[in-house]
Amino acid sequence: MLVHGKHYRTIWLKPEEPTVVQVIDQRHLPHQFVIKDLTTLEEVCVAIQQMHVRGAGVIGATAAFGMYLASLEAQKKGISQVQSFLQEAGNLLKATRPTAVTLSWAVNRQLAAIASLGNDIEAIIDTTLTVAKDIAEEDVDCCRRIGQHGVQIIEQISRKKGGDTVNILTHCNAGWLGCVDIGTATAPIYHAHNLGISVHVWVDETRPRNQGASLTAWELGQQGVPHTVIPDNTGGHLMQHRMVDLVITGCDRATYTGDVANKIGTYLKALAAKDNNIPFYVALPYSAFDWDIADGLTQIPIEQRDPREVKYVRGLCADGLIREVLITPPFSPAANYAFDVTPARLITGLITERGICPATPEGIFSLYPEKRR
Ligand code: MRU
């Protein structure tokens, strides 16, 4: 997508230096656009854990490139047991963030691809690079297709409203910054905007890390999509007053029964949408499904992060410097659950790269029949 009119993805190989992976360091947005070099497995683990990159799609792609960098490291260090070295690298990557299943999906895909290569380091480097590139390309392709399917929902509402603006609420950042390009929840919105359909996005600020206020608002602004940032507790009021036509969120892990884990606070938006009869859709690619679990509430691991993220807020100060400020009494403990689970019964439908389906096993398996057991 565009940054100051120039096209970027969130992750790429450094031109002329293919042993370096470059990412947009999201910690500095919206005030500074910083590109960061990643050259080692350890740097990749830090980048994911500390959320220099965040969002299911780009976490998966970064982990995949992390496996490639780990293979290069194995070669540099003259490691003879490359398979076990990479197994361990995969375990380190998987441990960085537990909820987004795309991370372990990407690592497992790398491990499966190299499984038959023994300790042939040249072949392993070639393969991990190819798989990482494939994962990144597929993420973009899935998001494009999610946009093509999801735009139909927006078109329908726009027609019903006689062409009046369609107001869409979204939570966190399931935009292009959270993917490799285009985004999941934002894909139908960007598609509609490009078709000339009038859309306006209510952007939940998304405490504690404010991915909505700092990332979604920024990327929508860069693409010229009208939007308004709202405190997280405003959505219910807007829905009661018919100021929201549709909710679209992203997803970090979905069960095959249609339960969905997404950024903390998503569940409350789904409840409010249900109470107000407002369609609540979740946009996700196949890589966000966990085909092994049926009950999101008891089986999806919920990441708990440093309470410091709740107690301190980071922002641009009047003197032009970016600082963190404490907003709680220093002695008060804080809890930082990073995700919650929205049960399938609150979800109107899932927007996937294969089409839109009800959040039910039948609906999901109708799109992914090969996953039926
Ligand atoms: O903690 P984050 O910022 O990684 O959480 C991200 C989200 O919850 C997104 O909505 C989700 O990853 C879908 S984005 C493709």
Report on the architecture of this protein:
- The protein is of the alpha/beta class.
- It has two domains: 2-138, translation initiation factor eif-2b, domain 1 (Four Helix Bundle (Hemerythrin (Met), subunit A), Up-down Bundle), CATH 1.20.120.420; 149-371, Translation initiation factor eif-2b, domain 2 (Rossmann fold, 3-Layer(aba) Sandwich), CATH 3.40.50.10470.
- It is built from twelve helices and 18 strands.
- It has helices at 41-49, 56-76, 82-94, 101-114, 121-160, 186-194, 211-223, 235-240, 266-275, 296-299, 308-311, 361-367, and strands at residues 2-3, 6-7, 11-14, 17-24, 35-38, 166-170, 199-204, 227-230, 246-249, 253-255, 260-263, 280-283, 289-290, 312-316, 322-326, 339-342, 349-352, 355-357.
- It has a seven-stranded mixed β-sheet with strand order 8-7-6-9-12-17-18, sandwiched between helices. The protein has a four-stranded mixed β-sheet with strand order 13-10-11-16, with helices on one face.
- Strand 17 (349-352) and strand 18 form a beta hairpin.
- It is globular and about 65 Å long.
- The model has no long low-confidence stretch (mean pLDDT 98).
- It binds 5-S-methyl-1-O-phosphono-5-thio-D-ribulose.
